[in-house]
């Protein structure tokens, strides 16, 4: 690894213009600013270009096909960095996050993918507002440290990638997984697994707001993807049978048990209908991730 790696922050976004703007403003609080900031919107209206350039005059807007995997691939192609920090458009970094990224890759030259410690994750609830998330980051205080530990895959909301093996082996996010995708972070991590370590690094801290405002797949589409994508990745060979079928079983069980009294922020019945259609397509050999786009 390089002693002083060039670090890029890369954000794929869709339909959350104001959320993205707040996240980028918060990024200015980094004690070590990114060497590159790249944003790939699904459409031009998804990014406030004036506000972006005010916060980061050197930032670049990257054009890519709509869909999280395609947008993240466009970000890889556009960057000359050594390390790419993929974050969701609603992920807030602790102030020392990028300093700790540099430290991690200096001290662990075997690491190819890392993911940080999520202090709070709004994806498990109605979501966190920006001020709530920023307060949680601020309250976390000084870094308590901790050694990186091996993990199966990075969590896509904060996914730190050493780009040399990505370029050398032509590794990309799988664009067969459409729209917001599902399990694309697992697939990408496992593609890189033969070339180094995948770690959970507790010194990398942040908050995932889990914003529920647009930009994500409706319930039926997501439910179908909850079946189609793990099975596709199992057949592809990047997801073990235990992980693939366990993921399908857990999602189906959650959607069945919670459909009677669903959380207000989750379309459980839509997800369940998507799950059932996916299982029917599995039995009838018509299952394909791309069919989620037709729902």
For the structure shown, list the relevant keywords.
295 residues, alpha/beta, Spore Coat Polysaccharide Biosynthesis Protein SpsA, Chain A, nine-stranded mixed beta sheet, 10 helices, 40% helix
Provide a brief overview of the structure:
By secondary structure, the chain is α/β, with parallel strands linked by helices. The chain is 40% helix and 18% strand.
How would the blueprint of this fold be written?
Elements: E1 7-13, H1 17-27, E2 36-41, H2 49-55, E3 60-61, H3 68-78, E4 83-87, E5 91-93, H4 97-107, E6 111-121, H5 130-139, E7 149-150, E8 158-162, H6 163-169, H7 184-192, E9 197-208, H8 219-236, H9 241-258, H10 268-283
Parallel strand pairs: 1-2, 1-4, 2-3, 6-9
Antiparallel strand pairs: 4-8, 5-9, 6-8, 7-9
Helix pairs in contact: 8-9, 8-10, 9-10
Query: Which structural category do the helix and sheet elements fall into?
Result: alpha/beta
Uncertain regions: pLDDT < 50 for 5+ in a row? none
- DSSP strand tally: 9
CATH class of the largest domain: Alpha Beta
Strand proportion, as a percent range, falls in: 15-25%
Broad shape: globular
- Report the CATH topology name of the largest domain: Spore Coat Polysaccharide Biosynthesis Protein SpsA, Chain A
Detailed description of the structure:
The protein has 295 residues and is α/β, with parallel strands linked by helices. The chain has two domains: 202 residues, Alpha-Beta Complex (Spore Coat Polysaccharide Biosynthesis Protein SpsA, Chain A), CATH 3.90.550.10; 76 residues, no CATH class. Helix content is 40%, strand content 18%. It contains ten helices and nine strands. Strands 1, 2, 3, 4, 5, 6, 7, 8 and 9 form a nine-stranded mixed beta sheet that branches. Helix 1 links the parallel strand 1 and strand 2. The mean pLDDT is 95.
């Amino acid at each position: 690894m390089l002693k002083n790696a060039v670090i890029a922050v890369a954000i794929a976004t869709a339909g959350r213009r104001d959320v993205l703007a707040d996240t980028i403003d918060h990024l200015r609080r980094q004690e070590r600013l990114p060497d590159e900031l790249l944003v790939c919107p699904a459409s031009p209206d998804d990014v406030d270009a004036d506000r972006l350039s005010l916060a980061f005059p050197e930032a670049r807007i990257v054009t890519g096909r709509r869909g999280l995997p395609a947008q993240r691939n466009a970000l890889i192609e556009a960057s000359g960095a050594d390390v790419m920090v993929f974050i969701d458009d609603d992920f807030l970094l602790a102030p020392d996050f990028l300093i700790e990224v540099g430290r991690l890759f200096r001290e662990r030259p075997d690491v190819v993918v890392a993911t940080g410690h999520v202090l709070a994750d709004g994806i498990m609830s109605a979501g966190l507002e920006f001020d709530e998330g920023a307060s949680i980051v601020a309250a976390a205080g000084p870094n308590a440290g901790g050694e990186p530990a091996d993990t199966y895959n990075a969590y896509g909301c904060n996914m730190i990638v050493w780009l040399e093996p990505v370029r050398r082996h032509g590794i990309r996010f799988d664009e067969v997984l459409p729209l917001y995708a599902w399990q694309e972070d697992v697939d990408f991590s496992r593609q890189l697994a033969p070339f180094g370590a995948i770690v959970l690094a507790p010194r990398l801290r942040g908050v995932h707001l889990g914003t529920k405002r647009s930009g994500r797949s409706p319930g039926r589409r997501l439910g179908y993807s909850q079946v189609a994508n793990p099975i596709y990745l199992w057949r592809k060979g990047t997801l073990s049978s235990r992980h693939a079928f366990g993921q399908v079983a857990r999602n189906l069980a959650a959607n069945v048990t919670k459909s009677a009294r669903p959380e207000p922020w989750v379309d459980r019945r839509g997800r369940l209908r998507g799950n059932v259609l996916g299982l029917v397509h599995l039995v009838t050999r018509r299952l394909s991730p791309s069919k989620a786009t037709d729902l």
